[in-house]
Amino acid sequence: MKFLRIGLFVFGGVAVALGVGLATLMLVRDDLSSFDRQFIVSQEPTTPAITVRYMGNTNLLISDGTTTLLTDGWFSRPSTSELLFGKIAPDLDAISDAMTKGNIGEVTAVIPVHSHYDHAMDSPEVARRTGALLVGSESTANIGRGWGLPEEQIRVVGSEEPIRFGDFTVTLIKSQHFQFPDPDMAAAALEDPVITEPLVPPVNALDYKMGGAYSVHVAHPLGTFLLQGSAGYVTGALDEYRADVVILGVGGVAAQTRSYQQDYWEQIVRVLRPDRVFPVHWDSLTDPLQDEPVMPNLLWSRVLDFQAEAGVNYALENARNDGIDAALFPMWEEVVLFPQ
Ligand SMILES: [Zn+2]
């Protein structure tokens, strides 16, 4: 009887400790408050201007008043358990809410930075609703085909093949995905990267294979910018390009080696010689989109090494050292990128 009581006591203690540990991992988040002063302020656009509306992760609605482009358009946020144990599909209500909140009307092109679920999963549905062309790799095209997007709304482009949308010239330049520190995760997410058949959701998250990871270069008479969605680089790939603004994916960069971090900054930012850098891809991938950005919880930030807060600091510190302006986009608000 005594042993049974001790056994129950120990078992209860372990269960409580596990519960507290799990709650801590799920509820404690990276701290955003230290970046409060970094958010740029939205302003009434003068004409002509290029505006950007940031909507979490690498979702950017870009407009010059005549032509509107959207990168990714990923508004569903499958939960951690759905990602690990279930199947995922676009969340139509979440897409509707985000399109209302982001004031997304007619769009000329939807351009995912690569084909992982957290970029390209919703792109065909957003293209369907906005009349946009879905632009990207063969893998991105197969996500569109699996969703039933008509072939005339799909455009497969090669690396460094410029496409014109109004006054915008968009060039996808083959880059690298960031390197997952965990070898099993790296193999699962990056090896065998092509979606060869139309992908019909619901599917496992890893069925959204990477396709190609691209730097998205956008040139316009008013200014030029580059979006680097994933924190990877190809040495020399951007040598021939320039950009006034770099929008830099920092998710996972803080978990890389010091030399990788230096090379990433050198190969993406320094070669392009921008005046300003905006870190993106630092908010939570598993919480619904809200009015304000939500930071990842400790499970994602530390155990899975996403390291959002450290990633933002990486960009801010490197920019300061190089004498480049750095700022964060506010959520859902239209801000003027050029001229300013
Ligand atoms: Zn990815």
Question: Topology of this structure?
Answer:
Layout: H1 2-27, E1 50-54, E2 60-63, E3 68-71, H2 80-85, H3 92-101, E4 109-111, H4 117-120, H5 123-130, E5 133-136, H6 138-146, E6 154-156, E7 163-165, E8 168-174, H7 183-190, E9 214-220, E10 223-228, E11 245-249, H8 258-269, E12 276-280, H9 298-303, H10 308-322, E13 325-326, E14 334-338
Parallel strand pairs: 3-4, 4-5, 5-6, 10-11, 11-12, 12-13
Antiparallel strand pairs: 1-2, 1-14, 2-3, 7-8, 8-9, 9-10
Bound molecules: zinc ion (ZN).
Give the assembly state of these chains.
single chain
Instruction: Name the strands of the widest sheet in spatial order.
Output: 6-5-4-3-2-1-14
Describe the sheet with the most strands: 7 strands, mixed
Low-confidence stretches: none
C-alpha Rg, in Å? 21 Å
Helix/sheet category: alpha/beta
Task: Give the name of the CATH architecture.
Answer: 4-Layer Sandwich
Domain module count:
1
> What compounds sit in this structure?
zinc ion
Mean of all residue-level pLDDT scores: 93
The percent of residues in helical segments reads 25-40%
Strand content: 15-25%
CATH C-level: Alpha Beta
